[in-house]
Amino acid sequence: MEELLSRARSIAGRTLGELAERQHISVPPDQRRAKGWAGQLLEAILGATAKSRADMDFEAIGVELKTLPVNHRGLPAESTYVCVVPLTNLEELTWETSWVRKKLSHVLWVPVQASKDVPLAQRRVGTALLWSPDPDHEAVLRADWTELTDLIRLGEVDTITAHLGEYLQIRPKAADSHARRAGVDEEGHIVPTLPRGFYLRALFTREILGRYYTTLR
Amino acid sequence: MEELLSRARSIAGRTLGELAERQHISVPPDQRRAKGWAGQLLEAILGATAKSRADMDFEAIGVELKTLPVNHRGLPAESTYVCVVPLTNLEELTWETSWVRKKLSHVLWVPVQASKDVPLAQRRVGTALLWSPDPDHEAVLRADWTELTDLIRLGEVDTITAHLGEYLQIRPKAADSHARRAGVDEEGHIVPTLPRGFYLRALFTREILGRYYTTLR
DNA sequence: ATGGATCCACCTATGGATCCCT
DNA sequence: AGGGATCCATAGGTGGATCCAT
Does residue B87 register a pLDDT over 70? Predict the structure, then answer.
């Protein structure tokens, strides 16, 4: 785990262009048609296993890799996707067994410049941070997760908006708004539903980074 | 349904090469690296919907299209794949609700020459046959399906061999023998298992074709 | 600023079956 | 001869996320 952090920190200050060249990967003109590009580049650089499987990035040590797009002041500008929202078979599901908790138990945050006025190839990687939620954070995450999951259990998935949840929110996660996945309605019937994902609000990841940098000083 | 049969019969006597040209599809040298080629060609020619989805080929009318590889005497030489074998969540499953019964309720059999000594492009399509199992056939299929499914329910999937079943057998259906899918063992635990499929024995499809041609005379 | 919408890559499961060794 | 092994195409789901209109 410490070795992973060292490797992640060894690329602090490098540009995405330099790292892409190292991997013989070409840099797209922008991220409009390659939204996951930076994340996948860093997976390749840091040697993440479990490519696109429903598993942790660094399986052996149970660490999830997340790039964190930061603005010119070094603060997260976007929410962070966590995992898909289960819409059926929720009977046995608890916070303790949830994917959200598992994915967030150990995260390697790698800040990456994301200001639109800097060309993609010239954006720099920041100093990585190995993080686990402290008890206060976990209590809020658990409360958010429970509130949202209970709504889904009640068949009210289509009433959920991104306004709900303090740290954790639910937003669409699909090719487009016409995509459909099995869900459950208020009568318990299986109905087609927009696929959704759990996301961490930017204010939460700002707090994570903020606490860390404060500690450093 | 009759219209489909007419279309299928209108290509009787044509070679696979002619039909491939009509679809602007190239003919592979042999079927070693394109085992499903003839079946997919006929789907294209006959306008099957539901390409590679878990659904009937001709959804609207509930008809399954099956090419039937026949030897130089016009008799089926190979078994016919029906569908994957469900290995978990068998509680609610009955013959009446099974995929096997659904897929076999209406089949458009299209015989295709399969003698290895005739080049693929020169093999001819035979006279198509729209078939539903008669009560005797269905009784045997049901008995086979029930016997095999009960073994899986008991967690004895790994004891199943292709020797079991009079008309319907279970054989591997996978990329190779290392492939694994969730199954259930004798203690009810989920264990990795070789994926399998239901197949109709060649002797059964021989009987289907034989009865039909006898009726014609 | 952010909620809702969208985009690519990759893997897996299914559907099309035949191959090939014993 | 036929049981066990294998091969390709395609659709769909998940994982990587950012875009963009308001």
Answer: yes
Q: Which of residues 168-197 of A touch strand D (CB under 7 A)?
A: 171, 173, 175, 181, 195, 197
Residues with Cβ < 8 Å from A90, sequence gap 6 or more? A149, A152, A153
Q: Please, which pLDDT band fits residue A2 given cuts at 50, 70 and 90?
A: confident
Kindly determine whether the C-beta of residue A171 is less than 7 Å away from any atom of nucleic acid strand C. Answer: yes
Q: Which CATH number fits domain A2-212: 3.40.600.10, 3.40.50.10490, 3.40.50.1820, 3.30.70.1130?
A: 3.40.600.10
Measure the CA–CA gap between B213 and B217, rounded to whole angstroms. 7
Quote the pLDDT of residue B163: 98
User: What nucleotide is nearest B177 when CA is compared to C1'?
Assistant: D5
pLDDT value at residue A58: 80
Distance separating alpha carbons of residues B85 and B87, to the nearest angstrom: 6
Å: A174 CA to C13 C1': 20
With cut-offs at 50, 70 and 90, classify the pLDDT of residue B217.
very low
Closest residue to C16 measured CA to C1′: B36
Three-state SS sequence of B67-105: EEEECCCCCECCCEEEEECCCCCCCCCCHHHCHHHHHHC
The pair of structure tokens assigned to A132 is 């686990």
